[in-house]
Amino acid sequence: MKIKTFVRDCIPGPMYEKLRRLKSLLLLFVLFMKQDRRFSKNAALPGNMGQKQLETQLIFFSHQIEKGLSHSNFRPGFGSRPIYALGVCLKKWNNHGYSKDIFGFKVATSALKAYIDKHDEIGCVLPDFFNSAFDREIMKDIDASDPSFSGTSVISGSENSSSMKTYSQILNSRVSIREFEDCPVSESTIESAISLAMRAPTVCNRQPQAVRVIFNKLIIKQALTIQGGWRGYEFPPALLLVTAHNSSFNNAIERNEPYVDGGIFSMALLGALESYDLGACPLNTMFDIHQDGFTRRLLNISEEEEFIMYIAVGKKKVGVSHPRSFRKAAETVTTVIR
């Protein structure tokens, strides 16, 4: 007889279940601690500034520049914080002698070149904080940068085709859109997109996802104000909140599965919205304690659910700009094990 079976037979049922729970809680604690150590050691936190972490910072702040450049109501001289941060990071990059052929460096210098070109295009002088942020070497890097790595692109009429798209066409045409037509979105179309996204893979068919579809303008405004990443844009006609139920999972090993399944479902939902010619923009729900609490109260979200993401939804508006968000080459992220 196995020891586990012997113990189970000797211990009363309620006590055995308590012991099983204690074992699960201890395992969960150990796994979270190991995960915490991996993240705190390697993420781009203060004090962790190796090449990979610096590249993360360059890409992060470059995207803020791209978003500012994409505004229809462009505000000259925007971006003092990301400009300053890029100046600091690029100086550290050059001081360490890191390669200037790395993706993040190319994106950053390209974004800054796009910033200069936009001000030149509209006849505005660069703000003083821009000129003071970069030394002569960095300005040479900016001038020599490849414009295709950053900047903005424009939504064209051809991207609003009503014909059914292939999966390849959806992935190649889908972009994050933050400005929409000033008109409502069909509830039935969103429901059709959600129904299509339900075909997304899910671990052991658990299907932990839940979707709130919000049309109430006041609640959309309150939710995105708490979220904090929708500044400078009109609020979208519709807002989706994707969550995942922790109750769909069995043990400590599956502690991260709500985010995995929720992310897979959300990507499928973004593709489904694109297939119905709706514009969309995923928005993070990486909340601090206060944001988490406010959002749960506002939208009546139980503690049993994990936030996955918001998705702003509206009809595509031809002629508006969106961040280019240049992608890495596949071979730079692929390792083949033969």
Automatic annotation (TrEMBL):
Q: Which InterPro entries match?
A: Nitroreductase, Nitroreductase-like, Nitroreductase/BluB
User: What residues does the Nitroreductase domain cover?
Assistant: 173-214
GO MF annotations, alphabetized: oxidoreductase activity
Q: So which domain of life are we looking at?
A: Bacteria
Q: Name one Pfam family in it.
A: Nitroreductase
PANTHER family, alphabetically?
Answer: NAD(P)H NITROREDUCTASE RV3131-RELATED, NADPH NITROREDUCTASE
Q: What is this protein called?
A: Nitroreductase
Protein's organism = Bifidobacterium longum subsp. longum
